[in-house]
Predict the 3D structure of the following.
Amino acid sequence: MKIMCVCGMGLGSSLIAKMNVEDILREMGISAEVDNCDLGSVTMHDADLYITTNELAANIPQDFQPKTLVLDNFLSKDSIREKLQSVLNK
């Protein structure tokens, strides 16, 4: 599984999300490749799941929308864990 964390510039919040997602997946015993990128280059990255914020969700390309998980807070591991579990359990 490949997961791409997406933010406006690809440096700040997406990097924090990447580290938090990796920690959570490790705790869950799930193996995945997690990376981060900026919104402008998201179409160059093929992933099974894209993770972004409410503010950027509307700007994710339509083709990627079904594979996009929208987080309210990249910093809250509890919130990320809850949303990840709901997606991964499907």
Q: What stands out?
A: Residues 2-84 form a domain with the Rossmann fold fold (CATH 3.40.50.2300).
